[in-house]
Amino acid sequence: MNEQLARDLERDIATDPRTNELGIRVQVRGDHLVVSGEVASEERRATVIEVVREHDTGLEIVDHIMLSAEPGPGGPGHEQIEPPQRS
Amino acid sequence: MPDPIRVAAVGDVHLADDLRGRYAPLLEGISEEADALLVAGDLTQHGTLEEAEAFADEFGAADVPVLVVLGNHDYHSGAERDITRLLEDRGMTVLEGTSTTLDTDAGRLGVAGVKGFCLGFLGRSAADFGEPQMKAFTSHGIETADVLRKALDDLGDEPDVTVALSHFAPVDETLVGEPKEIWPFLGNYRLGEAIDETGVDLALHGHAHAGREKGLTPAGVPVRNVAQPVIQAAFRVYDVVPRRSA
Ligand SMILES: [Fe+2]
Ligand SMILES: [Fe+2]
Questions:
Q1: Is A22 buried (19+), middle (13-18) or exposed (0-12) by CB count in 10 A?
Q2: ipTM of the predicted structure?
Q3: Residues in domain BON (chain A) (predicted)?
Q4: How far is the CA of B72 from the centre of ligand 2 (A)?
Q5: Is the pTM of this model over 0.90?
Q6: Most buried residue among B2, B96, B191, B223 by CB atoms closer than 10 A?
């Protein structure tokens, strides 16, 4: 039952046009509904939580969503790729 | 050792208006460290023209040629053709079963690109059997690899460095970290076979946000998952040493 609720919510977050977030996980833990995963901005996090709230689950929503790291300049240096050793 | 061709890459930036301003400042002046910028699909979040405009504005800041493939998100609104046109009007190259070459100071770079599709990996892949829907799913996965092979064949051995660019993963090694149950929806071993048969020096893909950066094809071609959540940077640069003179 809880498992079903969690999967339904994940599906809605993936298919709702406001979110379309495929990387969000939902778990039921006692009276809590834990929402986790990664999104790219604060606004996207808030929208995911809004979509979850629209379902009357009676559970307390716990927001464990992480924000993707803001991109830094070019990562740690360059990686050298040498020609494969083919015969 | 000859000078390398410097290939910058990123994927899965999922742009929309809320992320404007995040990439342009990091891409200005990229010519100092790279010869080209390759983007491995999921340029937008929902595949709308408005989001494609945001992508074009951000990535248009790069002062090197920008070559992209689209991702599944870029198809979501059915506007992939219009997105392609918009990006090409903005001077970018959109590859879909096609290839292109660029001359750099270190030699000629050839890039073949395709979005790719699901299918899975050896022993755990969809089979061309049963219902028409299953056959359609499977044959699309197979077809997309054939299209990549043809684009790579078209390049031949003329480039000094050949890169295969896709959205879906050609191997499963770069999917480690993603739940195994969804691997068949993240990549396609036939893409890897096409890469192994055509003299590719580096394969780049995205789509697997929770995967890892580095892998190899069965024949030993380096594969890099450049999904932005994986590389956690605006781009990664691969200095690819030309094969011919090595
Ligand atoms: Fe993506
Ligand atoms: Fe994707």
A1: middle
A2: 0.85
A3: 1-71
A4: 5
A5: no
A6: B191
